[in-house]
């Protein structure tokens, strides 16, 4: 019920203003009627108070747009009533009190203080020096000061509360926008990561499948008896590619979708399967380890595996090499991985990394976990990829 009234008042401010004016007018007329007889026995006519109440109440229609002017008009009407002989009660002060409340709501604290000082000086001065009806001085001075101070303080407190609520809402909206931007940023990062995974999976397995298919075609003409084994290796490679693709693309599923992938991400624990697959394609890979092996963070483990996979895939696709070497060096907090091949390219070394997207992807992978990667041709032929990764992230 209260919420409905508040919503209606917010949607119909002018109707609320009209209701306020009617109520204040009735209060002011009632105040003039109860102040007719004075202590001296002199009767004050009722109609001046009613007329002043109509003027002061009518001025409240503009209290939102011109609060200073409305305060001035209502202060003059109330002060005129005091000069006529009315004792300033809360009933007669009602138009001025509403105007002061609006002034505190729609202006600043300094304006409210100046208006309060001017009103107090005006009302108290008139009551003290213009009283011809022997009203008690506490009622002439202390009463009006208290009644004009109260709405000003109340309006200031309401304005500060509204400002606080608006500030809280602004901070909440800013936090919501920040969360949305962070969510979009994380989604973009996740898309890049999934794209990198897809690139590594497809490039690796397609390169192996191409090498196995070419070898099988060659053996079909020279050693037909070895073709079935080569085709089995080709089938295993394509099956592995399909499983990894399903696992990677499955990351895009919703949490409540069925058949969500349960297979963990690959890591260095599957390195032997990787080297076996390359051996079937004709590339012999030797693996050496220096230092004490230490458990890696999942992200670092996956990054190291993918970099080795991509580097060996580049050897199988682009280098005329039959062997490759993978070397792991463990230190206290770093893991250095080196993948090299002798190649078959004579001549001077070519400094700097190549411009392939595979190399770019490897470098981005290393940087994503706080590592770095260097790649370049070796003197005398061949290529070397070296990456340094943190043990824990």
Write out the strand line-up for the largest beta sheet, numbering strands in chain order: 1-2-3-5-4
Backbone CA Rg:
44 Å
Q: Biggest β-sheet: count, sense, barrel?
A: 5 strands, mixed
Structural class: alpha+beta
Provide the residue-averaged pLDDT: 78
Secondary-structure element pattern, one letter each? HHHHHHHHHEHEEHEE
Question: How many extended strands?
Answer: 5
Helices, by number, come to 11
Helix content: 55-70%
Strand content: 5-15%
What characteristic shape results from the CA principal axes?
Answer: rod-shaped
Termini gap: 55 Å
User: Which segments are poorly predicted (pLDDT under 50) over 5 or more consecutive residues?
Assistant: 345-355
Overall structural domain count: 2
Keywords:
rod-shaped, 393 residues, Heat Shock Protein 90, alpha+beta
List the helices and strands and how they pair.
Blueprint lengths: L1 H10 L1 H21 L13 H13 L7 H18 L9 H13 L2 H21 L7 H86 L4 H23 L21 H10 L3 E7 L7 H21 L4 E8 L3 E8 L15 H12 L3 E6 L5 E8 L3
Parallel strand pairs: 1-2
Antiparallel strand pairs: 2-3, 3-5, 4-5
Helix pairs in contact: 2-3, 3-4, 4-5, 4-6, 5-7, 6-7, 7-8, 7-10, 10-11
Could you walk me through the main structural features you see in this protein, from its secondary elements to its overall organization?
There is one protein chain. The protein is α+β, with helices and mostly antiparallel strands and 393 residues long. The protein folds into 2 domains: 2-174, no CATH class; 271-393, Histidine kinase-like ATPase, C-terminal domain (Heat Shock Protein 90, 2-Layer Sandwich), CATH 3.30.565. 63% of the residues lie in helices and 9% in strands. The protein has 11 helices and 5 strands. The chain has a 5-stranded mixed sheet, with helices on one face. α2 (13-33) packs antiparallel against α3, α4 (67-84) packs parallel to α6 and α10 runs antiparallel to α11. The radius of gyration is 44 Å and the shape is rod-shaped. Residues 345-355 have low confidence and may be disordered.
């Amino acid at each position: 019920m209260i919420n409905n009234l508040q919503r209606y008042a917010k949607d119909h401010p002018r109707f609320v203003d009209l209701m306020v004016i009617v109520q204040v007018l009735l209060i002011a007329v009632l105040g003039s009627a109860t102040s007719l007889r004075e202590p001296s026995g002199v009767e004050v006519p009722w109609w001046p108070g009613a007329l002043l109440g109509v003027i002061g109440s009518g001025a409240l229609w503009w209290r939102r747009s011109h609060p200073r002017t409305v305060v001035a008009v209502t202060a003059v009407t109330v002060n005129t009533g005091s000069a006529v002989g009315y004792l300033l009660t809360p009933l007669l002060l009602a138009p001025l009190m509403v105007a002061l409340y609006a002034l505190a709501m729609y202006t600043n604290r300094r304006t409210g203080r100046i208006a309060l000082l001017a009103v107090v000086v005006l009302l108290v001065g008139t009551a003290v020096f213009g009283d011809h009806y022997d009203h008690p001085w506490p009622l002439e001075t202390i009463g009006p000061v208290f009644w004009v101070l109260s709405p000003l303080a109340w309006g200031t407190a309401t304005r500060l509360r509204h400002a606080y609520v608006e500030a809280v809402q602004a901070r909440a909206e800013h936090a919501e926008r920040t969360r949305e931007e962070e969510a979009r940023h994380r989604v973009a990062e996740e898309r890049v990561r999934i794209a990198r995974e897809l690139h590594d999976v497809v490039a690796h397995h397609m390169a192996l499948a191409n090498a196995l298919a070419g070898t099988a075609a060659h053996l079909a003409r020279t050693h037909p008896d070895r073709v079935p084994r080569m085709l089995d290796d080709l089938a295993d490679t394509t099956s592995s590619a399909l499983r990894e693709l399903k696992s990677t693309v499955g990351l895009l599923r919703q949490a409540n979708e069925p058949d969500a992938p349960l297979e963990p991400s690959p890591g260095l624990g599957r390195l032997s399967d990787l080297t076996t697959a390359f051996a079937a394609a004709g590339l012999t890979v030797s693996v050496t380890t220096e230092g004490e092996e230490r458990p890696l963070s999942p992200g670092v483990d996956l990054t190291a595996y993918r970099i080795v996979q991509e580097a060996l895939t580049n050897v199988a696709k682009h280098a005329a090499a039959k062997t490759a070497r993978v070397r792991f060096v463990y230190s206290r907090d770093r893991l250095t991985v080196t993948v090299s091949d002798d190649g078959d390219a004579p001549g001077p070394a070519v400094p700097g990394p190549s411009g392939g997207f595979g190399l770019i992807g490897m470098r981005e992978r290393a940087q994503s976990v706080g590592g770095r990667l260097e790649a370049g041709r070796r003197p005398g032929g061949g290529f070397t990829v070296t990456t340094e990764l943190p043990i824990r992230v």
